[in-house]
Structure formats: C-alpha cells, structure tokens
Amino acid sequence: MSTKKSLMKSYKFYFRLLAFGSMAILAACGDESNATTNSRNPDKDVARLPLFEELDPAQTGLVFTNEVTESREYNHIQQDVIFNGGGVALVDINNDGLLDVYLAGNMVSDKLFLNKGNMKFEDISDKAGITNDTWSYAVATADVNGDGWQDIYVTKYMYDPPSRRKNYLYINNHDLTFTESAEKYGVADMGHGTAANFFDYNNDGWLDLYVGNQPFVEREKKYQTHPEYNKELATDRLFRNNGDGTFTDVTEEAGLKSFHFVLSATASDINNDGYTDLYVTCDYEEPDCLYMNKGDGTFVNTIHSAMRHISNFAMGSDCADFNNDGWIDIYTADMVASDNYRLKANMSGMNPERFWMLANNGYHYQYMFNDLHMNNGNGTFSEIGQLAGVSNTDWSWSTLFADFDQDGYKDLYVTNGLVQDVRNKDYIIKRNAYMDSIAAAAKAEGKRAQIDPLVVAKMAPSVPLQNYMFRNKGDWTFEDVATPWGLTMKGWSYGAAYGDLDNDGDRDLVVNNVNAPALLYENKANELTNNHYIRIALKNKTTGNNWNSVGARAWVFTGDNMQVAEVYGTRGYASASELTLHFGLGAHQKIDRIFVVWPDQKQIELFNVDADQTLTLHYEDAQYLNKTAFKLQPPLFENIAKTSGIKFRHKENEFDDYAREVLLPYQLSRLGPCIAVGDVNGDGLDDFYVGGAANQTGEIYLQRPTGTFASLISTGWAADSIYEDLGATFFDADGDGDLDLYVVSGGNEFPLNSGLYQDRLYINEDGRGRFTRHTDALPQITASGGCVVAEDFDKDGDMDLFVGGRQIPGKYGYPANSYLLQNNGGKFTDITATAAPDFQELGMVTDAKWMDIDADKDADLVIVGEWMPITVFENNKGKFENVTENMGLENTSGWWNRLALTDWDDDGDLDLFAGNLGTNIKYKASEDKPFRLFVKDFDNNGTNDVYLGYYDSDGVCYPVRGRQCSSQQMPFIKKEFKTYNDFAKASIDEVLGERKEGAIIQEAKLFESCWIENKGRGQFAVHKLPIQAQTSTVNGIACTDINGDGMTDVLLVGNLYVREVETIRSDAGVGCVFLGDGKGGFNWVHPAETGMYAIFDTRSLGLLNNPQKTATFILGNNNMGLQVYRAKPSPAYGSVNF
Question: Which pTM was predicted?
C-alpha cells in the first residue's frame, strides 16, 4: 500500500466549541456542550437500530451452560463468591483466520468451539484435551512458546486442596489438540486465580504473565478481623518469560507482592511512555492498584496520587480512550443499582465511621459506584462516571469498550446480575432471624446449633437482569441502548468478549452466563448503518514470541477526530477479546493518517488509506521515525508555590455537622478559605487576604517587586482567630483613598445567633497595610454569612455593602437573612428592612455581583446561592426590587457557588459566569424533574430533618436516602415501613405524608455551570457551559487574558470533598481553562497542556497582577496549603492585559 505523504493538520489538545451567541434563546437554558466534531451519519438514527441479533445455540452449535448448583458443601452462605461466574476467550487456535471460542466452566467442564465460518461452531472440547473437573475462572491467550500458534491459560478457583487449584496452560499442538503444560513452564499457580493477562512488561519481546489471586473463598475466614492466610498463595504473581520455554516468578522484585481480593487485571500504557502499566481491581475493602511501569523491571502503585476516589467492590475493568483525546482512560464496574427499587431494597447505607477509618488508613476513598476515570494526561484522572451516565449498572462484572456502531467513538458493554440477591436487606433480616431462632432453640436444649446452609441459601431472592450497552454520544456522555440494539436477554452474565467472528468487519459478542446458555450476538452494523471502519492487524515475527504485537498501538485520524487503540487481549472480566484493532470511521471513507508504534518505538505512518478493509502491518517494515502521534502545546501556567514565599495552610477545625443533622448532603462547617485581592500598600501590585478557619488567624500577603509574597505582620489578626472567615473584600470604607478590609464570619459550628458570626471591619490606618479593627463601624450581624460585595449603590460618593447570609446553623435549607449596609461617613447602617426587604430570608446566598442591569447608571445586584435561581434585584433610586421573574430567570434554581463579570462576547456590556454544582454527581435536576428538598422537624424531636428527593425514570419523586439512614434521623420511618421492600416502593410523598405540611420545600432545576449573556435592555440568555466545565462544582472563576492574545479567557476551579459518604465527593476538578475568541466561543485547553493541578478541595480563587505583567492565581484549598500559579510569559503570546 502506498504511503503517500500529505499535510495533516496539527492535533492539539483543545477543541473548538460552538460560538453561543447566535444560538441563544432569551432567558432560556440552551445545552451547547459538544466538545468535538461528531462525524455521525444523519441518515440513520443508529441508537434505535436493532444492531445485534441473538443467535440460537441450536443453529450455531455454540451450546454451553455454566451450571452452578448450590449444595450443603458449596453455597453462598459458606462461599459468597460461588456465583462469580467464568470467562470467555476469542482466539484463532488453528490459524485459519476465524476466531474460535473458549468458555470457562465452574461446576461444569470448559468448552472449546471451533469456528467453521458463517457463525457455525463445532464442540471439539474432548478431542482438544481441555475437558476437566476443576473450577475454571479466567481465560487468557498468547503464543506462549513462540511457535506461531495461540495457547490458552486458565486460572482455577474454589476447590481444595490447593493442588486442585493449579492453573492450566494449554500448549497448542497445531492439530486442534492441546497439552496441559503449566508445571513444565513454571506457571502452575494455586492461589484461587481470578485474573490472568499476558503482556511484555520489560519490552524484551517475550510475553510475560500476570496472575491475579484471592486469599481464600471461605466466608468465615473473610469476615474475621484478622484472618489467617497463606501469604505465598495469596499474592498476585508476575511470571517473567525467560525466552527458553520457562517462566520465573519475579513478583517480589517487581514490587507487586500483595494481599487483595482481585477480580481483574487490565494492561495498558497509561502514560504514553512505551511501557505497559497495569490496573488491578479489588473486591471488598482492599483498594484497587494502578501499577505504573518504571521501565526498570519494577512497578509503583500510584492509585492514591493518580485517582481521588475509586470503586468499593471493583470487579471488571477496561482501559481505552473513550473521548478520543489520545490518552487511555479506565472504567471499573461495581454493583449499585440503577433504579430506585433495587437501590433501596438491596443495598444498606454506607457506614461513615468505617468509611473514614478505611480512608484515613490508606484504603482510599471508596464508593459503591462504577467509575469512569478520565485520563488528564498529567498523571491524574478525573472520575466522571455520573456525568457520563455509566455509574449505576447493578451487580456488574465485565466491562468492554468497543465501537460497536462504528461511528468513531468507543461504546461500553457491561454485563451484570447475581444468581442470588445476597445483599437484599429483607432477606438478610429473614436469614439472621432464622439462624438466631435455631441457635436459641439449641441453646435452650443445651445443644450446639445445627444450621442447614442450603435451607438458608434458598431464602435469597433471585432476579435476572438485563445487561447494559452504552452508546458513546461523542460528548463525554453515554446512553443505554441495550433494548433497541437487541441485547434484551435477562439473566446472570459474567465474562464477555468481542471479536469479528464472521469476518464482516464489525465486532460481535460472546457472553458466558451462569445457569443459562452462553450468548452469541451477531453485530449487524455493516448491514444496518452507513458507517465505515478499518481493522488493523499488527504482526511481529522478529522478536521473541510476541507475534501479535501485544503492547503496540495505532492512531487513526479522520477529519477532526483522533482515535487510539492498543493491542491487549485481556479485558473486562476473566476474558480475552480479539487482538486485531478496530476503528469505526462514521461517514469517512478515507483515513487521513494512520500512525503505529511498537513497544520499542519502531513506527509506521500511512496517509490517505481506504476504509472498510483489514490492514495487516508488519514490525519488519517499521522504522525508527522519531515521530509522535500528536504534539502537546507548552503549558499555560507555571507552578510557583515553592518560591512564592506563601506559607499559609488552611487548618479546618473539627466539627461533626451530621451529629445534629444526620442527612445533610455535605458539611457546611467546611466552606473556607476565602480570598480577597487588592493593593493594600499602594505600590501598584495586588496583595491578598486569605481567611482562616475557626481558631486560625487569617493572613494578608504583600506582593514584592519580584512577584514573591511576604506575610503582613499584624497583632490585630490573632485576637480574631476565633471566627471562621467565609468571605472578604478590600474596599475604601472610610474614604481616605486606601483599601480597608471587610471579613464575613460564618460556619455551622457555633450556636444560632452566636457573637462568633459577627462580621468585622479592619481599617487601613496608614495606607501601607497597618490594619485596626473598628468594632463600632458595623451593626450587629449574627447571621452565618458567606459573601460581601461593595458598591456605591446610592451614589453618595462612598462604598456601601451587600452581605450575603449563607446559612442558618443547624437548619439546613431554611433561607438565611442577607443585609444591605449603607456607608455613613465610615460607619455602616443596616437599611435592609426599608431599602431591600426581600433580602430578609433571601436564601442560602453564596455570591453576588454589582452591575448596571438596566443601563440607568446605578448599581443593580445579581445574587446566587444554594436552592436559589440566578436572582436579580433592580436598584430603583436606592430601593431594591426582585425582577428575577421579569427577566425569565425563575427556572434557574441550582446550587450556585460563584459569579464573575466579564465582557465575554466583546460586545461592550458585561456578561456573567456562574459556577454551579455540575452534572458529575448522582443528583440530577431539570425543569420537569427538579431535585427537591423538604426540611422540617418531621418527628418533633427538636432537630431539623433534611430530606432530599429525586425523580426516577418512572416520573415518581423518591427519597434520595435509604430506609436505614432515613430512620436514623426520623425513627417513624422504620415503624411505618416495616420492610425494605415497602420503603423501596414508597414515594417521598408517601414517606412524609401529612408531615409535609408547614415544611420548607426547595427545588433545583439546573445544575450546570453557565455563562449568562447580556443581551442589553435588561435581557439575558443563559447558556450551559461546555461539558468540560461540568465535571465538578465550580467555586472559583477568573476572567482574564491568560494566553496573551488580547482576548478574555476564563479559568474555573473547584471541588467539594466533604459530601456525606453515600454520595461520591466532587473531586474531578483539575482546573478548567477556556480560551475566548471574543465572539462568545470557547476553546477548551486539555489538562495536559495547562500545567495546572487544581485537584484539591478548592474553595476560592484569587486573580492578581504581578511585576511580570502576567496573571498570578491563588487557589484557596480547604484544610491544606494554597496553590500559586503564574500565567507563563511568552514572546509568542505577549503580555496579559488587566
């Protein structure tokens, strides 16, 4: 094939987004969040096509049922892993170009089916020599001895003695028979094997073997406080291929010795360095492992630094680039249900004490959700499973990324189901009651209790479930299309593998079920869609035994789309898929560029390649081209924290918000620190104040001419350390021309109306930063505040104040008072009652901005808050009127955190950025299905009861929390709903009943962060920010020219780590940068190019000028130090204009 050279566009790490201005609807929320060009063919709605056909085993010959029958010896009471199923492998055993099928059996023998073509299979198990009476689990394939024929490795499980659990290695005899040779090759491990993966960890050309193990399967051992186990059998193992027909156990020297309940081990080059890394999922409390290959024969586990949380009961996993940015992402399966009934009936509440005990002792932050870890390209991941819509798939096992509809984006297949619902709460209660009654009766007779485990086991309910097929929509989100695509079988599915079984160009599926026939789904994408494809087979007959080029990668470029795929067979759960790479191309019939890299960095590059073919490329034709698939742009920011001179570290005081309000969504006592920016000493350089937590002194830092900072020493601050600082602003309070400081006191830990909520005013006495608190300058304000903004609203020549009330301590959800303070010669008077009565009980205010909304040359006020719409007060000659509804903003209620003003579209007026909760959370909100809050002392015990409600897919509003934790706060629930089944069926109206009367009821209808376009004449258009801005809560916004092109850009930061433990903490934020184009458009900058690691619990953001004439950014992180970044000066970019 010709390697015709042509010019290719540079694939950068930011994508041009739609310019919003011309598409906006006045005062309406428009979703304009696509980040990449989508090449879908509009002629057919692929999401509604019956893409797969379930083939009849009687017609195909693929007849296999993995029957698992409980007995008194083997049952889920004694071995709770009995229904963990088995794997499947698609492998061409006779080199005829057709993928054959190997299915692992538990209580039945394995089966091997020869592909005869046209979806016909022959069972050759007996003559192949693979029939056995052991418990098989995982299947992996490789050409182990380098003879050009694929061999099969099968892990063994469950049975004792250990000799009965020796893993099998079937060496291919080239005649449709195999010889079991595990001991001969040195890989007959006996450790309850659950995973196996062949890859070349040291890049010597020989495929090595990783085996994942579990320490034991007996339930009585597993739940002991300090279980005894054989450490030599329990560890995972890495076997190095010696290249002479033997393997050596190098587990310990490679740094991989472990004690985990492993369920999958997936290989991938996570950081694009040419070495194979490994993601290992672990069941129960043991955290997953992200083993990064150091390139020297050893690995380092980076799970704590790379990921901010992980799945709790992680099962299957896959590694693939789902968002086409060139970096490999990771998906793990857990077992949380997707519908309200199963969610409430089958799962107990999380135990906060246990959660924090594990987290604080190195077991990571583990949540019972599927996780989609998006690779940021900088050594960190952002987990976005709930934003993507793939977090809840019930008791799940296999996870497979593949482009099944061939549109250029990898879809996601997830198998699920457990034969017995062993976590059904009513079953557990019934089971325990039965066993207690047997024990009590035996004790009364002076006998030892004899409990028949089979009787108990049969009490458990059994509900077959449908698997999930998520279609990748190309915008970081997925939709479940299992039903329209024809994947409707309900059962208990485990291992699964994909491959082109009929050689028609698309990927088919084989699924290994328990107690039901294995499934064979034929993919009809080539018949039913207009999408194209390319298949790439990479071969290597030169080095070692890696004939199929395991570890090699291929990139495919079509238009604006870049795809990458890796040659690794083991994926998902206990299974091996085909090794031929497959790329969907959508409507593209030509490929602009193909770029292939083998592990030793030899490369092949092709241009202008025809679609709809299988392309075989050989290592022997590759060269050391010294090219890259794509180029990274220089980072926009420089981390200067270590040299900045800033030593401040926020130290949060300990307070348990949940002791008073059990069902709070997060801790309201941990909202700091705040940051205020201003030139306090008149030298032309911005300085800043950072607020302290309760019992911590806030600090002012003066900027030096070098751009470094020095703490301003003041004896006045220490006396006020007892306050919690939650808002601050520099302004000229006394009219002497310098900046004074107002600090808002807040928090949730002090009693209602405590003097510790009194705000403070510090006067700059000498214009150089000598501050003195003036206690007589402010009225008594003992509300827990959250923000303050200054403006001369009455146009009398001095600066007045709006002070936002954040919360009423101990009464979450009740609207707090806000205040309008008029400046009278440096002393402030509360005129709220007369000038702004609607500020009283305004809401849970988080931020506000003064701006002239109606162009009448006075300052109006825009206010946001939790459970509040974007609220506008018009200033009419010093009186403030709520005009939110007049402006069409009444349906924008959300969990807003921050506002920023800028002329984003460069039309001469000020627009707004508004930071919200984001969509990467289990809470969902829309106008027709709002997220709801009910607060009242429902049980009349003197405490505030917080009850959240959400709408499920059936259109009914249900409680967010389950029966167990709901009863902790409101004991009547346990009395009125005797079973978990009853509670699981109850709507929130049925749970609260008549008690709702007199309750505060709030609704949120919009959780996306937005920009609000000023259309003039008091009209606004609300636009949802692109999807990249929705991965976490936005707590800080800075609008300035970051890259020096003369146009305004925006930086968004924020996370919220302190959520209650049944809701994944908001920690996916990494610092989101959009470069503006002056027309309202957005160019997202990939985190790999920003140079910013805003991954912590960021609450605030300060933007400062500096002597280098760039921008300095101060990030205020809760309970840790500040981060300091400077926009990097560049001759190409020029200076930054403030």
Answer: 0.95
